[in-house]
UniProtKB/TrEMBL annotation:
Bias kind Pro residues: ranges: 258-274
Protein name: Uncharacterized protein
Molecular functions per Gene Ontology: metalloendopeptidase activity
Gene3D superfamilies (UniProt xref): Thrombospondin type-1 (TSP1) repeat
Regions crossing the membrane: none
Any single GO CC term annotated in Swiss-Prot or TrEMBL for this entry: extracellular region
Lineage: Eukaryota, Metazoa, Chordata, Craniata, Vertebrata
Length: 355
C-alpha cells in the first residue's frame, strides 16, 4: 500500500472592516453613541487597519441616544433670617422640583414627579431663652389742651420666658441704658388768644424805713380777672405781647421822724426833737441816727447811708428794742438818667496846600 502526501494549497486570510459601537454617554436627557471602524481577519480577530482596504472603510459618525428626561429631583434655597432673636423662632427656605431635559437644560417639574420625601421648608432657630425686656403702657393724654404739654406712660421690666412665674420683674434685670422714656413733650395746636389776660399790679409792700423817709414797692403780674373781682395768675411769658401799664412800681413813704441824740453827748449825731417843756436830760434811752450821707449816684437809683446807735443819756447802750431801730440805708435819686447827647459829627478835613 502506497502512501504519499500532497501539499495543500496555501489559503490567504480574508481582511474586512468591522464597526464597533460605544455605549450611550448618558443614561437620560440625551447622550451620544459613536462608531469606530476596526480591521478584522476572517471576521474574528482584530488586526492592524493597514491590512484592510482603505477604500472600503465605513464612514464613522455618532447619533443621539437616551433622549428621555431624567428623573425629577428636589433643589433647596438658602435658609432665611430667623423670625426671632431668642425664645424660639422659625426660618424658611424655598424648594423646587426640577428635572434635566437635555444635557445643558433643566426645567421646573410638578411636585408630583419628585420623590415623596421632600426637604424641610421650615426649621426652628434661636431656641435659647430670651432675657427680660422693657415694656411700656399706652401714652396718656397731653397735659394741655393746646400749646406745649407733656404726656406720660408706664415703663416696666417684663419677662419674655413663657414658663416664667411673674411677668413683671425688677428693673435691675433689664438694660437700663435701653429704658424707654416715661415722659415726652407733646405739642398741640396753638392756643387761642386770651383777651382777658392783663397786667395786674400787686398791693404796695411795706415801707423800707421804720422811721423817716423810705420806699415802698409793688410788682406787675400777668393774670386774668375773675367774676368775683380776684384774678388768676399766669406765667409772665403769657403777657409778653401786652403793653405794660404806666404804673409806678415804687414811691416814697414816711413813718415819722426818727429820734436823734443830744448834741452834747454825741456830736456826730443829729439831736432829737424834744417836746415843749422837755429837756435833753429827760431822754433816758433811745435810738439816734446821724444825717444821711450823699447819694451814691446822681440818677438812676442809688443808696444813702447813715449811722444808727442806741444811747442812754449819752453813752452807747444795748437796751434799745431791735424792731424800733431806724433804717441805716435808703434809696435815693430814683429818677431816670437823661439820655446821652449824640456824639458830634467828625470835622471835615482841612484843605491841603495848593499844588
Amino acid at each position: 500500500m502506497w502512501e504519499y502526501t500532497l501539499p495543500l494549497p496555501e489559503r490567504k486570510p480574508n481582511y474586512t472592516w468591522g464597526v464597533v459601537r460605544s455605549d450611550c454617554s448618558a443614561p437620560c436627557a440625551g447622550g451620544r453613541v459613536s462608531t469606530k471602524a476596526i480591521c478584522l481577519e476572517d471576521q474574528r480577530v482584530q488586526v492592524n487597519g493597514t491590512l484592510c482596504n482603505p477604500q472600503t472603510r465605513p464612514v464613522l459618525g455618532s447619533h443621539l441616544c437616551n433622549t428621555q428626561p431624567c428623573p425629577a429631583y428636589w433643589t433647596t434655597g438658602k435658609w432665611g433670617a430667623c423670625s426671632r432673636t431668642c425664645g424660639g423662632g422659625q426660618q424658611t427656605r424655598h424648594i423646587r422640583c426640577m428635572r434635566k431635559v437635555t444635557y445643558q437644560r433643566d426645567e421646573v417639574a410638578p411636585h408630583s414627579l419628585c420623590p415623596v420625601m421632600a426637604p424641610a421648608q421650615v426649621q426652628p432657630c434661636n431656641t435659647h431663652t430670651c432675657p427680660p425686656e422693657w415694656g411700656t403702657g399706652s401714652w396718656s393724654q397731653c397735659s394741655k389742651t393746646c400749646g406745649r404739654g407733656v404726656h406720660k406712660r408706664s415703663v416696666f421690666c417684663r419677662s419674655t420666658d413663657p414658663g416664667a412665674r411673674a411677668v413683671v420683674v425688677p428693673d435691675s434685670m433689664c438694660k437700663l441704658h435701653h429704658k424707654p422714656k416715661a415722659q415726652e413733650t407733646c405739642v398741640l395746636a396753638r392756643c387761642p388768644k386770651n383777651d382777658r389776660l392783663q397786667w395786674v399790679t400787686t398791693a404796695w409792700g411795706e415801707c423800707s424805713a421804720s422811721c423817716g423817709t423810705g420806699l415802698r414797692r409793688r410788682e406787675l403780674h400777668c393774670g386774668e380777672r375773675d367774676f368775683r373781682g380776684g384774678y388768676v395768675e399766669f406765667p409772665i411769658r403769657r403777657c409778653r405781647n401786652l403793653p405794660k401799664p404806666p404804673a409806678e412800681l415804687q414811691q416814697p413813704c414816711s413813718r415819722g421822724p426818727c429820734p436823734q441824740p443830744p448834741p452834747q453827748l454825741q456830736p456826730q449825731l443829729q439831736p432829737p426833737h424834744h417836746a415843749p417843756g422837755r429837756t435833753p436830760s429827760a431822754v433816758v434811752l433811745g435810738w439816734y441816727s446821724s444825717p444821711w450821707q450823699q447819694c451814691s449816684v446822681s440818677c438812676g437809683g442809688g443808696v444813702q447811708t447813715r449811722t444808727t446807735q442806741c444811747l442812754r443819756q449819752g453813752p452807747p447802750s444795748a437796751g434799745c428794742l431791735a424792731h424800733q431801730r431806724p433804717v441805716s440805708s435808703r434809696a435815693c435819686n430814683t429818677h431816670f438818667c437823661p439820655a446821652p447827647a449824640p456824639a458830634p459829627a467828625p470835622a471835615a478835613p482841612l484843605p491841603g496846600p495848593p499844588r
